[in-house]
Amino acid sequence: MGSNLARNLASREGNTVAVYNRSPERTRVLVEEHPEAGFIASETIDEFVASLATPRTAIIMVQAGAGTDAVINQLAERFEPGDIIVDGGNALFADTIRREKAVRETGVNFVGAGISGGEEGALKGPSIMPGGSVEAYKTLGPILSSIAAVVDGVPCVTHVGTDGAGHFVKMIHNGIEYADMQLIAEAYDLLREAAGYTPAEIAEIFAEWNTGELESYLIEITAEVLRQIDAKTGTPLVDVILDQAGSKGTGVWTVQTALDLGIPVSGIAEAVFARALSSKPAQRAAALTLPGPSSAWSVTDKEAFVEDVRLALYASKIIAYSQGFDAIVAGAEQYGWDIKKGDIAMIWRGGCIIRAQFLNRITEAYAADPGLVALVTAPYFTDAVTAAQDSWRRVVAGAAQSGIPTPAFSSSLAYYDGLRAPRLPAALVQGQRDFFGAHTYKRVDREGTFHTLWSGDRSEIETEGSSH
Predict the structure, then answer these.
(1) DSSP bridge pairs for 451
(2) Which candidate in 25, 36, 101, 170 is catalytic?
(3) pLDDT tens per residue across span 13-54
(4) How far apart are CA 440 and CA 448, in angstroms?
(5) 331-351 burial, b if ≥16 CB within 10 A, otherwise e?
(6) pTM check: above 0.85
(7) What does the pLDDT look like over 390-413, one tens digit per residue?
(8) What's the pLDDT score for residue 468?
(9) Is 170 a catalytic residue?
(10) Rounded to a whole number, what is the largest CA-CA distance in the chain?
């Protein structure tokens, strides 16, 4: 991805790009394979720094962790005040906050920039989410705009906020990506297991879906994956791929961060857990003898079923994005970032993995109401979920009765019902907590904090202070 980003930069008029890798052989191979780029190659970090015009700007693409710190330290020792170091990798935003603070003390600008689009996006135009100072963005903005994807004449890049804001938003992007992929996988499984469609037939269904409101990069590539035939066996490739999905950590970070912020991201969490479950072959093998439902799903009207699954997918997708934007709002409040939600949706329309038609609707929703308390309550999305919910409920109920796992569909529906419920059983939970731990509770009919003496005379007393 780093080499493709360098090629992208070199292809833009007026850019001269210097390249350095701690393995000189990799640098030589890149330069030899792409002479048209006109790269200035360096074999040492000192040569690399000396080759840069001032104010120097270095974009590093290094695996998150200690290696990133090592490269940042090497550059910071050699750079001068006003120079810029950009970390374009998938760093944990908390590390970016720490690094930005440390580097800032030297007078050098440090920018954590989320870059989405994979290797192809890096070459042809990614979605870019830079954080860092306003001062750094004045220099960096035109450079990043020159290489970003462009939709409707607008580059898919914006200054997200200070210090770790860019990597935070990229983390949430990846969490939504997890949910989106899991929801698509569940739709595929339903079409195959309940309705008996073949992978090739499902590919055509997804291709048709991609012409409507579900139009997106992930739906598009799903059709291509399902069309692929394995050259060795002559069977659908999806049937010879081991059903164990890995992850690189950003989905886990999203869930952990949301828990810290107190934001429910159940659709994203279930997507992470589904990958974890898939990667437990010993447990799954031992569980093959566990009993299932007495009867399978009997789909009599396949066309109606396909439409039900499509609508359930769309409604669940709306919930995933709504939860993701809730996390962005909470993160902005926690860390003091001025993140414009509509701008984030706008730069996700091109270049990135979750690019989709309905991101335009998200931009419009936040333009109409910048203080929107939940994306799902915006008129467009409320209407969409209203139109989908009967299908959504049929799919989730039928899947449960038939033993087809739909964790992301099911949790998204449960979240939706929890959100709209006038009263939740949390009142009972608070009573239980007060019973065993004297954690106190609040009342609906008067102010204050209360504790009940559950044994003895069972009287209620008003307490001072907050709950434990």
Answers:
(1) 461
(2) 170
(3) 888 899 999 889 999 999 999 999 999 999 999 999 999 998
(4) 10
(5) bbeebebebbbbbbbbbbbbb
(6) yes
(7) 999 999 999 999 999 999 999 999
(8) 43
(9) yes
(10) 87
Supply 10's token pair: 């070199």
Cα angle value 4/162/14 (rounded, 5°): 40
* Residue 290 exposed, middle or buried by CB count within 10 Å (0-12, 13-18, 19+): exposed
Q: Tokens 């939504």: give the residue.
A: 176
Rounded (10°) CA dihedral 130, 136, 137, 138: -170
How many helices and strands (H and E) does the chain possess? 19, 10
For tokens 């950003």, what's the residue?
A: 250
Q: Which of 259, 244, 67 is nearest to 175 (CA)?
A: 259
Q: Which residue is catalytic, options 177, 186, 270, 317?
A: 177
Question: Does 220 participate in catalysis according to the annotation?
Answer: no
Residue type for position 414: A
Closest CA to 327 of 378, 270, 273, 255: 255
Distance between CA atoms of residues 218 and 206, nearest Å:
10
| Residues 216/210, Cβ–Cβ less than 8 Å | yes
Element (H, E) at 370: none
